Amino acid sequence: xxxxxxxxxxxxxxxxxxxxxxxxxxxxxxxxxxxxxxxxxxxxxxxxxxxxxxxxxxxxxxxxxxxxxxx
Length: 71
Hints:
two-stranded antiparallel sheet
């Protein structure tokens, strides 16, 4: 993350399906006093990670479940 902050306007792409990336990036930015005007942070919604970090899944087993409903 530190090297990324050397870019003109760094962008961190997070998602709950990436593990604890949202929490990790948020804590890092707060601890290093990086203001919202100096970084872009995006995340994704509607995904539930279900693979339990298993690299090899059974055939046709999903690693995530998507729900993009608005309700």
